[in-house]
């Protein structure tokens, strides 16, 4: 009797401690991913056929073409309806979205893909390392256990997405004349994907890079992470860039550039920012050298 009571009490204490740890970690996670970055904002053209359709911070992009469109990232599950409203507001039809892409499968970028997929019927392409996570609704063996448990029970997870195709580093995904090249720039997660593509705007052809986050969360670690980040920094330094973005809009100054574009002689010019791109990679490299973790 006494023995089993003790056992139960120990289990209860263990569960209580684990819950507190989990709550602290969720708080840190939400803060790090800025769950507050989901205010609706006006969608807008960045350049040519390249549009912003995300929330104030959690980013999503639309690349349009005559044979179908591409959407990059789905935000949280609760961001997806905003993304769809933004696509409609720009005058495009969600049903014409043929391809869905992802930067990384954490809930703030992979969470809304399932809803976008259901609404559009689009094919989802993912890197080998991101595919399993997207298909499982956000599970990832690199996420530490208390948080992983919250994904399993549905608090941090999202509806599983149907991954139609897995690409390799350097592959190009095409929809008619649209062509995006995948660069697996691992570090934040193993399958973190940066995308490079060109956009025609008037008589200019501009090089666009969507950089996957290079920062590391204490809640998402793996042994080869620093070596991967070294390689990713090298790869990203080698890309030609006129316009750059990331999956969190605050990191590439979306708002400042958008406001500047409304009064600029050419509204595209404020988005041309190769210096900002280099500064972003310099900062990521400095974080790596200092061993800084978020
Ligand atoms: Zn992330």
Average pLDDT metric: 92
What is the molecular shape?
A: globular
Helix content: 25-40%
Alpha plus pi helix count: 9
Provide the gyration radius in Å. Answer: 20 Å
State the major sheet: 7 strands, mixed
Order of strands in the sheet with the most strands?
A: 1-2-3-4-5-6-7
- Our measurement of the CA-to-CA distance between the termini, rounded to an integer number of angstroms, reads 47 Å
Question: For this entry, what is the oligomeric state of its chains?
Answer: single chain
Share of residues in strands = 15-25%
Q: How many strands appear in the DSSP assignment?
A: 12
Low-confidence stretches: none
Bound molecules: zinc ion
Order of helices and strands: HEEEEHEHHEHHEEEEEHEHH
Structural class: alpha/beta
Structural write-up:
This protein has helices spanning 2-33, 80-89, 107-110, 113-120, 128-135, 145-152, 225-237, 254-263, 274-290, and strands at residues 44-47, 50-52, 61-63, 69-72, 97-101, 123-127, 165-167, 172-175, 178-184, 193-201, 204-211, 243-246. By secondary structure, the protein is an alpha/beta fold. Strands 1-2-3-4-5-6-7 form a 7-stranded mixed β-sheet. β3 and β4 form a beta hairpin. α7 packs antiparallel against α9 (274-290). The mean pLDDT is 92. It binds zinc ion (ZN). Residues 104, 106, 188, 213 line the site of zinc ion.
What's the topology here?
Elements lengths: L1 H32 L10 E4 L2 E3 L8 E3 L5 E4 L7 H10 L7 E5 L5 H4 L2 H8 L2 E5 H8 L9 H8 L12 E3 L4 E4 L2 E7 L8 E9 L2 E8 L13 H13 L5 E4 L7 H10 L10 H17 L4
Parallel strand pairs: 4-5, 5-6, 6-7, 11-12
Antiparallel strand pairs: 1-2, 2-3, 3-4, 8-9, 9-10, 10-11
Helix pairs in contact: 7-9
